[in-house]
Amino acid sequence: MSLFKLNGDTAGQHVNPKKCKFYSGALSASKSEISLYLGFAPGEFPFNYLDVPIFKSKPNEICLRPIVNKIKMKL
Predict the structure, then answer these.
(1) Closest Cα to residue 19, out of 39, 2, 48, 45?
(2) Which one of 33, 52, 68, 72 is at 20 to 30 Å from 39 when CA atoms are compared?
(3) Radius of gyration, CA atoms only, the chain
(4) What region, left, alpha or beta, does residue 25 occupy, with left being phi > 0 and alpha being psi -120 to 50 degrees?
(5) Could you list the pLDDT tens digit for every one of the 75 residues in the chain?
């Protein structure tokens, strides 16, 4: 039984693999093998979580420009 299914049955919160992604960084294992095992698609950096960009390294000005523009519009 999958760990995700067991957790979902216990907690009542089920994982939707179509909406889930995994982020690996620098792994020696193949992303396709991990994807098959988890049932999730691999994701790429940067990505947005709750409308906030998530980076693997230090963000540059171009990446943060949309946030700055939103703050300027509200001011």
Answers:
(1) 39
(2) 52
(3) 17
(4) left
(5) 478 888 888 888 888 888 888 887 777 668 888 888 888 888 888 888 887 788 878 878 887 888 889 899 999
